[in-house]
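Incident review: delayed structure delivery

Summary: a single-chain prediction request sat in the queue longer than the usual turnaround. Root cause was a stuck worker, restarted by the on-call engineer. No data loss occurred. The affected request and its eventual output are reproduced below so the record is complete for anyone auditing the incident later.

Affected input:
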Amino acid sequence: MAVVAFDIDVLRAMIGGWRDALRPAGIVAREMAMAAMRAHLRSGRDVIVPQYARSAAFVDELAALAGDEGAVFVECALDADPAEADRRFAARAASGPGVHGDLGGDRMVDVAVGLEAFLTTRRHVTRVGGPAQGIGAVLDHVDAAVAAARLQG
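Output delivered after worker restart:
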């Protein structure tokens, strides 16, 4: 079955003037993404939200959406040290249109610390990745977590 990855940052970058109104554009992009995700889930397909999310309310909203549509919800966090995260972020920024601000240097350390603090508040987060794991291993881990959640659900 077809899986769709809703990258809300990409969607936000499609909104005119988003750089001048980051927060309002982000809220609109989330609302648009939630409506599209609902439609996709209703068609029996899977959704991935590759998002740096430090908002418990937003993650819980995603979980509620999945539950409303009879889908399982698996919250995953990609483990990467700040240097690796910075490298990946820079590579992503270089590969297409800019959809983020600058997080280089010490800012990525702050982001990693903030994310780790957030993750300690989450009860059912599945950690994936790590410095030695490639994308194939990460995807295998996510697939296993989804399969386990489906068995439980």
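Verification: The CA atoms of residues 18 and 36 lie 20 Å apart.
Action items: add queue-age alerting; document worker restart procedure.
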